[in-house]
Structure formats: structure tokens, C-alpha cells
Amino acid sequence: MGAIFGTVLAFLIVFGILVFIHEFGHFFMAKLVGIRVEVFSFGYGKRLLGFKKGQTDYRISVLPMGGYVKFLGEGIFEPGRALAPDDFMAKKRWQRFLVILMGSVMNIVLAIVIVAGTNMAGVALPEYLDQKPVIGWIEPGSPAEKAGLRVEDEILSVDGKKVPTWSDLELAIGTKPDKQLTLEIKRDGQVRSAQMVTGKEKRTRYEIGYAGFAAKILTQVQVVSPGSPAEKGGMRAGDLIQAINGQPINANKFLEVIEKSPGKELEFSLIRDGKPVTLFITPRQAGKVGKIGVLQSVKSVVKKLGFLAAIKESVKYNAKLFFMVIEVIKNLLTGQASVKQLSGPLDIAGLSYETFRMGFLAFISWIGFISLQLGLINLFPIPVFDGGQLFVLILEGIFRRDFSPKARQIWMQIGFVIFIILIGFILLNDIVKRLPNGWKSLVPF
Predict the structure, then answer these.
(1) Rg (CA), the chain
(2) pTM here?
(3) Which of 256, 273, 303 finishes a domain?
(4) For the chain, is the Cβ count within 10 Å smaller at the N or the C terminus?
């Protein structure tokens, strides 16, 4: 029950912030250009509670799946009706365009502000993400091994797209499960190409592309359990594990080596405060595997930037994420990506709770991540979305006349049907990802 309550609470916090910021953008710009705001609502449907101040009813409605701001005259399709000076339709087309656009702009601005804030506060990130994608480990039998890739190969591009860092490479692979990719690699100073068919990451319900290689990732000890073999052997938090029994050890192999060695003394080569240290530790038997009593992670670095540098890095990061979302959506529409990569309310709620448990910085970063996507998706030219209304305004600007009330009404009715279908599909997709056989679970034979 505690997890359910936490999930609901985290989702409401995330959703509440994003909806408020989005609708406040519409509200602020409407006030700026002199449009009367009749309703500012969190949620759709019947009014549950709220208060009225001035000419605006601030309310919470029964369906917490979004929110809206209602302007005077908006959605009224009566030909020849008299327009008050503060009526939505009484304003110039460019003013209406700015009012509709500002919701998504505010979501994008929020994402930039949050990332800039975390950059200034200082956030620990895996060190390897900003490094060149030089392979440090390959899983036996993996797509990478079948493609003939080797340790020390540097991957330069994926399907012609440059991947200067491991962060770029992970995005390129992760968004393309079960696809044949052309890799450009550098080996022994020579550039060559290789064909690799990706798999699917088995540790998640999302269909994320899997290659089976990793960077040269050092394991960093985070916590040493009191009375454990690691503590008795002299291991400390902050130690970097370089080798076990003289063999260089990658973070992906660290646990595997220990679990296969219960009761066997192992020689650990470490780096502590910049100096080499050698320890001898014997993993204890825990069931069928060995344990030494540590919590470890990949080596991280704390990035802390000044104000201007933080803003610059935030804009670069969000721009990269922006185009990544566009790429994923393009792949979905062309069938190159699975719908399991889509996340709906159930997924967002679950991930919101997970980041909530991880701490303030993780939670606020998640809000920024979702805010950017909400701002972008809302710009799609789909009726009911802000982008649908912007699309109509652009067409009216091109033809230099407003569409008839009947044409607007038909457009909105089409949009409502599309919206209901999209919401239904996204919710069903969330549910299906939790079923044992995916979409096949819905077929009774």
C-alpha cells in the first residue's frame, strides 16, 4: 500500500507541476495581450472545487489527466456574433498564436531551468558517458561479438550518424532494437565498417536496443557493510577496483567474478586517493554465490558549473534530447521502433516514484525530462493539442482569412476522436507491457 500511495503522490506532484507551468504559460500570455481568462482548470470534466478571483474561475476538475485554460469566446462557433474587446477571437492572429504557443514554451523553459539548476548544484554522472566510445568489454554470444567487434575498437558512427561519446552511442543503440546497423569503427588506426543486428535489453519491459558491449568502466565502492569480508580485508568507500587476481576488471564483470568465487581468496588491485593498494579478500558463501559485502557503482564525477556555463550546457543537453525525441517518434511512425518504447501515465507514475525515492536532484531532473517531452509533443499538429490550433492559425495566415465556424468545429471534433484513441492506446500499451506475453496476452487463442 505504501508503494501505491507513493506512486500516486509522486505522479500527482510531477503532473501537477507540469500542467500548472503549461497552463500558466497560456494564462500569462493571454493576460499580456488582453484576453479574458474565464477558467484555469487542473483536470478535465466536472468541477470539484476551486475559487473565483476577478473574472477567472480557478478549479480542480474530476479527471486529473491534464488541464486547460478557457478564454472568453474560445470554442464558440456562432457566425456573426458580437466580439468583446477581450474576446479571444477579437485579437489579432499573431496574438492568438503566441497565447497558444506559450504553454509549450514554458515547459521547454522549465526543462532548461531545471537542468541548469542541477548543473550549478553539482550532479554525479558516470565518468565514461563523456568519453570516446572505445569498447572495454564484450559479452560472449552478444550482437557485438557476432558482428566481429573487439575490445579497444572505437565506434565512430552508427548508420552514418556520428557518435563522439558513449552517451551518444547508447542513445543510438538503445532506440533501435532488433535492427541491422552499419557501424563505422576505428581499429589499430584504420577505419572500417561492420554490420551488427541489435537485440533487446532483457532487464526491462521496454524494448531497448542491446549490443552487448560496454566502456572501460571502473567499479567504485560506494558502501562497505560492517563486519563484511570487504571491511575485514580493508576495503573502503571510494576505492576504485582496477583488477582481480591480476586481470583487469570491468564493472560489468565485477559481480560475476566475486559470485563465482565463494571461499576463494581474491587479490584486489585498487586505486585509493590516487595511490595503488592491494587487498586480499575471501568472498563468503551466500546461497550458491560469493559475496564480499559492498555496494558499488561505476566511477562517477561531479560536474558543477557556473551560471552561464550551466545555462549553455542545459541548452545543449535539451537540444540533443529534443532531436532524440523527434528521432524516436519518426522511428515509431516508420515502424523502426517498437511501441513499447512509448511511456504512458502508468509508466510515468512508476518512474516518478522511483526517482522520488532516489532524492531531490533525481526527482527534479525527471520533471525536467518529462517537461521537455510534454512541450514538444504538444506542438504536434494534432487537433485538441496546442499544435493543432497553431496549425490552423498558420493556415489562416497563409490564406489571409479565418476559417468558418463550421470548419473549426469539424476540426475540433476530429481532434477529440484522435485524442481519445491516442489516450486509449497509450494506456493499453502501458498495461500490455506488464503482461507476460505482451500484446499476445490479449489474444485468447
Answers:
(1) 27
(2) 0.72
(3) 303
(4) C
